[in-house]
Amino acid sequence: MSNGKELAKIYEPGAVEGRWSARWLEKRLFTADPASSKEPFTMVIPPPNITGTLHLGHALNNTLQDIMARYKRMRGFNVLWVPGIDHAGIATQNVVEKKLHEEGSDRHKLGRDEFIERVWQWKEESGGAIINQLKRLGSSCDWTRQRFTMDEGLSRSVREVFISLYKEGLIYRGDYIINWCPRCHTALSDLEVEAEETDGSLWHLVYPAKDGKGSITVATTRPETMLGDVAVAVNPEDKRYKKLIGKTLLLPLIGREIPVITDPSVDMEFGTGAVKITPAHDFNDFEMASRHDLPSISIMDMDARMNEAAGSYKGLTRYEAREKVVKDLTALGLLKKTEKYAVRLGSCYRCGTVVEPTLSKQWFVKVKPLAEPAIKAVQDGETVFVPKSWEKTYFEWMRNIRDWCISRQIWWGHRIPAWHCKDCEHITVSTSDPAACEKCGGKKIEQDPDVLDTWFSSALWPFSTLGWPEKTPELKTFYPTSALFTSFDIIFFWVARMMMMGLKFRGEVPFKEVYIHALIRDAEGKKMSKSKGNVIDPLVMMDKYGTDALRFSLAAFAAQGRDIKLAEDRIEGYRNFSNKLWNLARFTLMSVDKDATGGFDIAVDKYTTADKWIITKLDECYNTVGRSIDRYQFDAAARALYSFIWHELCDWYVELVKPDLRGEGGGENGEDRKRIASSVLLSVLEDTMKLLHPFMPFITEEIYSYLPGGKRKKEQCLMEELLPSERDVYPEEAREMESLMEVIKAIRNIRTEMNVPPGTPLDCVCLPADEAGRRTLTRGEGYIKSLARVEGFTIGGEKPEQAAFSIADGVEVYVPLKGLIDVDSETKRLGKELEKLLKDFSSVEKKLSNEEFLGKAPKEIIEKQKVRLEGLREKRSKVEAGLERLKSLGE
After folding, report:
1. Which residues, 6 or more positions from 218, have their beta carbon under 8 angstroms from its beta carbon?
2. 228 in Cβ contact with 298 (< 8 Å)
3. Among 146, 219, 248, 377, which is most exposed with the fewest C-beta within 10 angstroms?
């Protein structure tokens, strides 16, 4: 063997994985070369948050990316997979603020500069732990090009983009209604708000007319906001309110005079058909107030407590104010009724606090001019979504896009490069820090205190990480990137924004394909959460079952368009696959001829039917795997590999060549058989390791390092090899072998169904349909005798008496059983088994036809019963076939 040692008896992932990770990095095998003449293939990692640790979503996303990266390298591409982490503004600031709180301090006591220093210190000491976890997963990123969304190069990119958009009028500052988190004290984009339906109430409030003649009743889910009302609106088509349009109402509790206006956007079916207008605390009201030139009155401060504009309610929280407003209106007889109502509440995606729509001065990107080219690029096929159905989601959001609020009221992040002049109020925007106002020359200037939304820097990721705005070799070679792997929940946050920015600043789409992978749920299809106790920790799974087992599990279940249902026992199952692979390698290395080196360069006439079959099946596997990965069908590729290795290579070919490897002279080529069988088995194992490597990199590298050197370069890693090239295949011989395998399976099934002990030799009579079938059986007699434990084998002749019968690929297969079994007792045994099966089958079938059960039972329980029914149906068919055979024996 290559290192003079034998493979250990048991595969120990922990002893292997770290060694190979270090070896790959030491040899810089992940490092891309911008000067290479090879065709480039580029991906950028969705940068995980600096505060994060590896969860199953990360593990899935990065496993699939790594499969693609390793596969493309072994296909001869110049692969660049750019790694990096995101500074995660709100999340990181929260982490450091908690640490300061534990020390009895806070950011305000430290001041901005010292606080930022503390964040950088935390970043160096504790941040980015996920990078090492990604390396442990086997992620073959070019770690020499690791980026951070706040490193020097990306900071420059951010400023260049901000200033360019500002000068074009695509970035502006203005009063606007935004989502405000009273806990994090920052604005949130619509996408950072998580909406959830909850039980609420609809209060019907009476607003009297100023002239004392009549009133209007409005329905609201937030009665406390009435303190900021500036109008009541009705639909112009609503006949109920024709006489009240244009009248003046007196706002209860406050006494403010407000008009009754009309607007076609008012839903006549909601509540009373009349709605209160609170522009400073509701998005729809803000838009309506803008159309009607109404004022905005903010009644809350940044902590969501009532301010001076709320009158006597000043100082109360919004919920305390709600309670008091309802109480006071009731006392005045102005609360007509209260009814239960389902309310969609928006919460901060970071801390869970209910957000407050708030009027605030913020920075915005005018996105419609940027969105139009990004829509067209997908329509024209410049960027393709996989699965294609996600294009609809992309289009829906892009066509209804609102201006993007990019300012955040925190300290950690890219500070907005704008300086406010206290003398003339002009705003100076500059790539470098100015010393004076560009308009009046005044020295009293201060930088805007806000920072940019984290997603602003992430939107530049595909080109900023390659060195833009410099004209770098990396940018020339590797942009646009080839593929983006991500989940559907950040199509809006990230994918769409990268599309807009890439087209705007590079004139090309940032990626040619976007693969949207599924979400991982538990085995019952439920969302994983710590509170439910159904979370699977990938780090624990790697410790317990090995990284390769986890990776292969994730790939095997990654079907397009379907959520992944994952349970620990499935990962354990692929640990068993690792062991199967290891045992295959051990058997091969212990059994092959000592001088064997592998290679498919043996004269064709020296190959047996079994050799030609396995070579053909290997080629089929290669084609299926390649085609599937190219189409992002990772589950299909994994299935093809699993089936080939476990069933065709281990279960069949190894068994077929065991006599040859033992030197027993079986087969068709006499004394050469051990040498030839050794060469074929080694060659198939070597090529199999290459095909499997992208999915299971650690165990394949370890096995490969023990294979005889042959033509391989000394000390070359498996991941440096190219995938197998096209080779001669033998479809006719493969078909012949599969016909023989059907006969062998038929004999084995008869043995099992008739309860004949495995070690008992059988006789067999085969009646082929034609002369070609006879020749196939004649050539394959040795295989049939060996694998089916057949002693007497006859081709043609009479049908034997008292024989079990089956048909295999047109061949009548008879196995005489006289003297081998007791027909009567075996009939009784199978009869009892069938009786139980029929009872169980009837019970499950009845349950699945019960409408009450189908209406009330959880979906996963119903699915389990359906699976059980199919299993019972299959068992019943086998037992009934056995009884039929016994019946024929007794006749």
Report:
1. 204, 205, 207, 232, 271, 272, 274, 275, 276
2. yes
3. 248
